[in-house]
Design goal:
2 copies of one chain form a homodimer. Chain A contains 6 helices and 9 strands. Chain A is α/β, with parallel strands linked by helices and 245 residues long. In chain A, strands 3-1-2-4-5-6-7-8-9 form a 9-stranded mixed beta sheet. At the A-B interface, strand 1, helix 5, strand 9 and helix 6 of A face strand 1, helix 5, strand 9 and helix 6 of B.
Chain lengths: 245, 245
């Protein structure tokens, strides 16, 4: 008997909009895996790795995940985003991708580029988000380079984008260096949310729009950052710090 | 002597972000032409056609426009958006597009699809925004169809997107019909701004985010609208109803 390899899932929700990055505004479902090899200081999904939501983790097969997606999303969707945590920890995500593709569903992945999986070559929208200095993480930029070279060799760069979250000027300079190295890859800067416990949505939105304006101004005066997009997190502007939207 | 055909320009500004549609967040310069064949009830750039800013209109050659773009944008940009009014009123925009391409600048155009110009085939990012019932305009959908068929015949659909502004449920149903007809073209719904005279930016942002949430909810429950993006106008969230940002 073949035992299906199970995926640790911490939440499944949608349909909703993708609130950030290359598919901003796109209708999608979300599957969020548990577990991360990083622990970014400002992580807005720390419940995936800090133990606080351990009881929510379910080990699910690709088929079980598909059934739950259909149960809550019905016939309203054609795209699924797999986020984390870091979904690149799990080779068995490949089975989920196959399963979704067989049902004519496009698949987006969000990962930091610290791990590689062969299924990277099959993802329709692969977002790689190297973590800047403010995260207090040490991103292995050589490993990231290997991943991107491999994607290029397999002619997959048109499915890839780089996204860097910016909290301060140091992050900005880090992002600029990465942009200069990979100027052929679509490049997104995203304004960081330092107020992940703020409960007043209107106050949060105003603060985030102010910080977004700050980031826009820095980019606009820059002669290096030209082919670039600067974005906020739309879901946070609309729904605040809530989970599952 | 060859007389260059001049373009009626009402404002040139940037660099700033493209606040809406397929290039949302992208760094770009704006050239706004004067004059429109439409007069949408809720137009947020009515000064381009209602006579209120007639004194600002300058007749400029492609080279003069380029010089002004360089003067204010320096070496910070690689993309120019030509908006209006309706830039498709002017055959001479073709010369501006050539001029910009010769300087390695990508060109986006925003037009409603009521007029056609041969230079549509050279635009890098062509946004066509048919106007829904709330505009009080009567869009000629057969003419729009001819434009899109022509773009398809010239293999240009990968440079095209459709964007429809939504104010109410009637607009939503109109957009749905167009989506069903052109499901192979990237499709954007944008939440309308009914508060174009609101001066309090925070009040405006909250109202627009509320309306954005309303539009998201309508789309999320819909079984027809699948491959779709739903977006706000980021510039209005950040800078309110100001001109020239």
């Amino acid at each position: 008997m073949v035992t299906k390899r199970l995926i640790p899932v911490i939440e499944i929700f949608g349909p909703t909009i993708q609130g950030e990055g290359m598919l901003i505004g796109r209708k999608t479902m979300f599957v969020r895996t548990a577990g991360c090899d990083f622990s970014c200081s400002w992580c807005d999904s720390a419940f995936t790795w800090d133990g606080s939501s351990k009881k929510d983790i379910r080990l699910m097969s690709a088929e079980e995940i598909w059934c739950e997606l259909k149960q809550i999303g019905g016939n309203t969707f054609s795209h699924v985003t797999i986020s984390g945590g870091n979904p690149a920890l799990f080779p068995q995500i490949g089975e989920l991708i196959h399963f979704l593709h067989n049902h004519n569903i496009l698949v987006g992945i969000e990962t930091q580029g610290s791990r590689y999986q062969p299924w990277f070559l099959e993802v329709d929208d692969l977002t790689i988000s190297p973590k800047p200095p403010s995260s207090n993480m040490k991103q292995d930029l050589e490993f990231l380079d290997d991943i991107l070279k491999n994607l290029e060799e397999h002619n997959r760069l048109k499915h890839v984008n780089l996204k860097i979250v910016i909290f301060d000027e140091q992050d900005f300079h880090y992002a600029k260096k990465i942009y200069q190295k990979y100027s052929q890859i679509p490049f997104y800067l995203q304004v960081g949310n330092p107020l992940i416990t703020e409960q007043n949505d209107a106050v949060l939105a105003q603060q985030l729009l102010k910080r977004y304006n700050w980031l826009i101004n820095m980019v606009m005066h820059d002669e290096v950052l030209k082919d670039i997009r600067v974005l906020p997190q739309l879901h946070t502007l609309v729904w605040g710090n809530k989970r599952g939207v």
